[in-house]
Amino acid sequence: HQDSHALLGTCRLAIIDIASGNQPIYNKDKSLVIVFNGEIYNHRDLRARLEARGHIFHTRSDTEVILCAFEEYGPDCVTHLDGMFAFAVWNPRQRTLFLARDRLGIKPLYMAQPKGGFAFASEPRALLDSLGHPPRPDWMSLGHFFSLGYFPLEDCAFEGIGKFPAGHFGHVANGKLTTTRYWQPSYGQGAPLSLAEAAHRVSELSAKVVEKELESDVPVGVFLSGGLDSSLVALQAQRAGGGKIPSFSLGFEEDTHDESAAAGEIAEALGLEHHPFRLSRDMLRESLFTVATHMDEPFGDSTVLPLFVLSRLARDHVKVALTGWGGDELFGGYPTYKAHRLAALYRRLPSLLSRRLVPSLVERLPVSDRYMSFEFKAKRFVKGMDHSPEEQHFLWMGYFGAEGISRLFRGEILDKMIHATPFPPAQVLEELHEEDLLDRIMHLDALTFLEGNGLFQADRMTMAASLEARVPLLNREMVDFVAALPAALKMHGGQLKAVLKEALRPHLPPHISRLPKKGFGPPSSAWLRGIFSDVLDSCFTQERVEESGLFTYMEVRRLIDEHRSRKADHGRKLWLLLSYQFWHDKFIHNRPFPPL
């Protein structure tokens, strides 16, 4: 759509109403026009209610349902939508724009406000030409990135571009944006339930939300990691699908991180049409720069590589994949949740033990490549005991601390970061009204880590393969119920995901629930000592590092040498540096990636 004041366009992955659902879509008198990214799972029920109120539809698409809902309810339309969405409605007569993003930020929405105007898109690269200047790094946001490995809240790697916040709608008039929060998560505030009652309710809800999210005019499958979250989704998909549901898993050559055997066993137990794939060295080499090309922001988690490969392989069979994303944040699946309870006791130890003796012993532990090894967890655990539990949480989950950042960057770059807000910022902490610490931490993860890390990579990598990823465990009905369960119940008896394990107990082999968490966690530390060792050398030659003018070469070299000699495991930090360097080369320096 183009008029004298606005231009709206879309590139559609057609899932619902393939024949007539193309966008932009107009209302009857063309006083409103919409572009939309996502899926609305209650669009049929909502359509019926709107038809009863006199609305006439010309397509079967959920996009038109949103537009009619906006006509009927105004901004309150977002409370009627059950799904994942980012959409914009333009009013050519009033010259106003309405924007909205789903509650948890499943679908991305970026924005820029050039002089006298406003621009928005699903990816920041689409906004670069609107900035009026060559792309520049946003060093405030990058200060957070090098600490956390992702861009939280409204941060973006590019100066002049930000994210439209999840759970908000907004109006743009005369180039000025005003936003309103329409939803805020709440944790641990529900009525007390027994473990059996909670598990039964989760079983019922999961069956309901998965059945809703199976709706599609194209083939649907399931990503099966071998963990509990995807197992619950696969179980309910198989029950509701009326036939064998295709499932897809990816295995690693490194046994320390491979969970493909468990995925196969689960698929057999549930009666799925299973497609196991193995990530070969050739696939790795081939995909590294392909993934970097699709990423227009740096990203610290190496999971994007196997995720892209799996998405591309699955796309040969299906166009939609149900996933288990969000289960860890919702049901209490991260080891850090257990660690916070232990940390409360640790802080009571005499200072000589907690600040000197134990950290000294932990630092001497030999480096291990095992996923979530004791060495990795112990070294993380002793960090940040001088900080609040909320601040310590981000140190445990993070990459470079303040000291590491000061050693890594040149002085002129550090000067640009100096005003970066400490994380988590005070305004986020003020939103946490829960009294229980673990409820507060889960609330924090829902606001930051879930959207900035998990949902970002899920959307970006599946979309890069022209595959739609759905997240039924983050359906609004499931979130409202499970978030309200107290953390003590989610970790009943000291078990992570106790409610989920109880819900799945009748359906899976008993030993599956006792397997250590792996998911799609790749062996990136081993990769950087082996198959990608030459890429590190090519990216971080002294000449290239000094030409970039960002990092101190001696610090980068120290990290690489210590990692290779196994003096320390810097795998996560080096992968983050590699991701950043790829992004900087492509968008800031406009130079090719180093040869493989």
Briefly summarize what is shown:
This protein is of the alpha/beta class and 596 residues long.
Can you walk through the features of this model?
The protein has 596 residues and is α/β, with parallel strands linked by helices. 44% of the residues lie in helices and 12% in strands. The chain is built from 26 helices and 14 strands. The strands form three sheets. The protein has a six-stranded antiparallel beta sheet with strand order 1-2-3-4-8-9. Helix 4 (195-213) crosses helix 21 and helix 5 runs parallel beside helix 6 (260-270). The radius of gyration is 24 Å and the shape is globular. The relative contact order is 0.13. The model has no long low-confidence stretch (mean pLDDT 91).
Q: Give the C-alpha Rg.
A: 24 Å
From the spread of the alpha carbons, the general shape counts as globular
- Helical fraction equals 40-55%
**Strand order of the biggest β-sheet:** 1-2-3-4-8-9
Number of helices: 26
What's the mean pLDDT score?
A: 91
Estimate the strand proportion.
Answer: 5-15%
Terminal CA distance reads 43 Å
Number of strands: 14
Largest sheet: 6 strands, antiparallel
Class per helix and strand makeup: alpha/beta
Low-confidence region ranges: none
Features:
single chain; alpha/beta; 6-stranded antiparallel beta sheet; 5-stranded parallel beta sheet; 44% helix
Secondary structure layout:
Layout lengths: L24 E2 L6 E8 L2 H10 L9 H12 L9 E9 L4 E6 L8 E3 L6 E3 L17 H10 L12 E3 L4 E6 L2 E6 L13 H19 L6 E4 L4 H14 L4 E7 L7 H11 L2 E7 L1 H14 L9 H11 L5 E3 L4 H5 L3 H12 L4 H13 L10 H8 L7 H9 L4 H7 L2 H7 L8 H5 L6 H11 L1 H16 L3 E3 L5 H9 L2 H4 L7 H7 L19 H6 L3 H7 L2 H7 L4 H12 L6 H18 L8
Parallel strand pairs: 10-11, 10-13, 11-12, 13-14
Antiparallel strand pairs: 1-2, 2-3, 3-4, 4-8, 5-6, 5-7, 8-9
Helix pairs in contact: 1-2, 4-5, 4-19, 4-21, 5-6, 5-21, 7-8, 8-18, 17-18
